[in-house]
């Protein structure tokens, strides 16, 4: 075969989520003389990464939404594999629904078929929906050649108990690009000025899509409580999503809008992280939390909900897991501790070396995927 082999990644859309960002980090690093990525999405609405994908030589195949018409989706996906291949691998990132593209890939003789779990969202009980999820799990386990998970919790949620002993399964850590953190400018004054902050401001932050699992309502309720005790506080919310307008309106009704900065999707996240004093991550469920890895790379004290997998704590400095409830007193205590803990954060060189050793560098992730595809 002349030229690189092609891998088809399956997503809902190529927007700026954790799984999409992980694969784009790998895409930028991977040897493109050997491997080329294409993307199958379930929408014709342009995604955040679409232009970069095309610039890197990738193709984007838009399929009908399976929620609207599953038969049309199956036909379209099957045609993509038949007429736009050959693909050496189909790598699916759409949780339970990965069963469908994996089965289609199997019957089109795609040699490498990867189902990838990025979430701890699980399903329990007996009803029609959960029977469907059970069948999907069995199909993925049967027809995939490789099963990947970002954490052991994410593995159990999608593939079932005992999956960690399966020879087809392995944990693939969400690698980040450490180079951008190594090159962060230390001068924070420029960032403060751009955001209209004063140097004495206490800055809290969160990175994540405005969607139900990220729990932005908890963040702004907590921040309102913080603001009563620390009036010079500001909150940076980085990301976009369906609930953004609702959260914006809530901050206005609470009277805290002037202290909350909705920054949208950004390509300067390392610089913005460098402005924060405490990183807040109260997810309702989470595969791992790549934003937490980035926050630790930037040397920020982190406070996360205990729904986040324990693997997210790299032991690089202050990190707390707390329960979610309506009483913010425990969060306030830990926030005060975090604000006093910056001197306990290890040096940048030590942080970066720790992250590499633990396998959270994108170089490690890319190497593993090259071995799977190759």
Automatic annotation (TrEMBL):
Pfam family, one: Glycos_transf_1
UniProt xrefs under InterPro entries: Glyco_trans_1, Glycosyltransferase_grp1
Superkingdom classification of source: Bacteria
Glycosyl transferase family domain: residues covered: 194-309
Protein name in the entry: Glycosyl transferase family 1 domain-containing protein
């Amino acid at each position: 075969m002349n030229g690189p082999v092609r891998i088809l990644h399956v997503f809902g859309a190529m927007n700026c989520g954790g799984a999409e960002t992980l694969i784009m980090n790998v895409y930028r690093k991977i040897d493109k003389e050997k491997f080329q990525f294409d993307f199958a999405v379930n929408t014709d609405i342009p995604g955040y990464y679409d232009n970069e994908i095309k610039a890197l030589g990738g193709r984007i195949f838009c399929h009908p939404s399976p929620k609207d018409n599953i038969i049309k989706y199956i036909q379209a996906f099957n045609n993509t594999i038949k007429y736009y291949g050959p693909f050496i691998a189909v790598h699916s990132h759409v949780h339970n629904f990965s069963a469908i593209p994996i089965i289609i890939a199997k019957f089109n003789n795609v040699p490498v078929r990867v189902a990838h779990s990025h979430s701890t969202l699980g399903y329990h009980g007996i009803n029609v929906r959960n029977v469907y999820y059970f069948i999907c799990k069995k199909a993925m386990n049967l027809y995939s050649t490789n099963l990947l998970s970002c954490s052991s919790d994410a593995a159990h949620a999608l593939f079932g108990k005992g999956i960690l002993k399966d020879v087809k399964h392995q944990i693939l850590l969400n690698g980040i690009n450490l180079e951008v953190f190594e090159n962060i400018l230390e001068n924070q004054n420029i960032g403060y000025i751009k955001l209209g902050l004063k140097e004495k401001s206490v800055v809290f932050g969160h990175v994540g899509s405005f969607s139900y699992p990220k729990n932005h309502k908890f963040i702004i309720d907590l921040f309102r409580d913080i603001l009563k005790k620390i009036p010079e506080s500001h909150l940076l919310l980085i990301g976009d999503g369906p609930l953004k307008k609702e959260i914006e309106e809530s901050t206005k009704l609470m009277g805290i809008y002037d202290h909350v900065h909705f920054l949208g999707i950004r390509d300067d996240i390392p610089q913005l992280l460098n402005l924060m004093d405490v990183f807040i991550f109260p997810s309702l469920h989470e595969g791992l939390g790549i934003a937490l890895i980035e926050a630790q790379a930037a040397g920020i004290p982190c406070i996360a909900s205990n729904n986040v997998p324990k693997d997210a704590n790299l032991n690089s400095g202050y990190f707390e897991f707390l329960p979610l409830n309506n009483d913010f007193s425990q969060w306030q205590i830990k926030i005060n501790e975090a604000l006093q803990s910056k001197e306990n954060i290890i040096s940048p060189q030590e942080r970066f070396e720790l992250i590499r050793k633990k396998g959270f560098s994108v170089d490690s992730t890319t190497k593993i995927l090259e071995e799977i595809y190759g």
